[in-house]
Write a structure and sequence with these properties.
It is built from eleven helices and eight strands. The protein has helices spanning 18-29, 51-58, 75-87, 110-140, 155-158, 164-184, 201-204, 211-220, 225-236, 275-282, 295-298; strands spanning 9-13, 33-37, 63-66, 92-95, 147-151, 190-197, 247-251, 254-257. Strands 3-2-1-4-5-6-7-8 form an eight-stranded mixed beta sheet, with helices on both faces.
Length: 305
């Protein structure tokens, strides 16, 4: 297995710690050359520590580090150019870098909301934009087609009070994934999104004030980031050819295929607006309505570690 990804080149954003580091290490152990793009920022995007990126690169076979903020205007071009100049190609882009802020709607600041979007959504778009041209040219030249993996979150699919910015950015990432999969299908370049559960610093930072969240934390902490990395590595391997546009989850040893937005039912409204008749028609749809369970309630049971 050590040569499964031999000769392949990967970029992993947010690759200095947690899931990103596990992904970088797994790719490196499988033979890929890895560029770790990370500025060593805190969970909320606060003070940077570039040394974290340098240390991470030393822990990954065949890796180098680029200590920049992925949300910076020229970060995407820098990363793609560096990977191609150093490794000769770009085969895998893993958009993992993300920040999160706690603020309920009405309490948060617009600049903070926009900062989360820049890191979690605009940066993946910019990196994909910079990568697809070289990936297409490589495929036309006979190189095995590359892949893009976007790291989402259950919050982006199910929501959670106080996490509006994260939910909006990660939900947008799913739409971007689908669009990229459609646009790149002619070149057989895959694009998938994953929803990871692992005992990272984000999970460990959950306090005991909310017993529901604390129980979710305690159940998730034992889950290894390497399980998430294994799925990413598979999506980069030849055996994953043809898998694209999918939303996959990793919760310990369990791999989930998430359903994606599609009509669940239909009814017919009255020809002229009448709220009572409208309500009668809408009763047909109520069995198909989604409940308000958030990510913690949905995944509050014991995972398979």
């Amino acid at each position: 297995m050590q040569d499964l990804l031999a000769g392949r080149s990967a970029i992993v954003t947010g690759g200095a710690r947690g899931i990103g580091l596990a992904v970088a290490q797994t790719l490196g152990l499988l033979g890929a050359k890895v560029l770790i793009v990370d500025n060593g920022a805190a969970l909320d995007g606060g003070p940077e520590d570039p040394a974290v990126t340098e240390l991470a690169a030393m822990r990954v076979p065949g890796a180098i580090g680029l200590a920049i903020d992925v949300a910076a205007d020229d970060a995407a071009e820098q990363a793609i150019t560096m990977a191609i100049e150093t490794f000769g190609a770009i085969d895998l882009l893993v958009n993992n870098a993300a920040i999160e802020l706690d603020a309920r709607v009405g309490d948060g600041r617009r600049e903070d909301f926009e900062r989360v979007l820049r890191t979690n959504l605009v940066a993946p778009w910019a990196l994909a934009t910079a990568a697809v041209g070289p990936m297409r040219r490589q495929a036309r030249a006979g190189r095995r087609p590359g892949a893009i993996v976007n790291v989402g979150s259950a919050v982006g699919l199910l929501g959670r009070a106080g996490r509006g910015a994260e939910a909006a950015s990660k939900a947008g990432l799913v739409g971007l994934t689908r669009t990229l999969a459609l646009e790149l299908s002619d070149a057989m370049i895959a694009c998938n999104a994953i929803v990871p559960f692992a005992g990272t610093r984000a999970i460990r930072a959950i306090g005991d004030e909310d017993s529901r969240l604390a129980a979710f934390r305690d159940g998730t902490v034992p889950l290894a980031a390497s399980d998430v990395a294994n799925l990413v590595a598979f999506l980069a391997a030849p055996q994953a050819a043809g898998i694209t546009g999918q939303l996959l989850g990793v919760r310990g040893r369990e791999v989930l295929a998430w359903s994606q937005a599609r009509p669940a039912g239909s009814c017919f409204q009255p020809r002229a607006f009448d709220p009572d008749e409208f309500a009668q028609a809408m009763r047909e749809l109520r069995p198909d309505f989604a409940g308000l369970a958030d990510d913690v309630e949905t995944f509050g049971d014991d995972p398979v570690a």
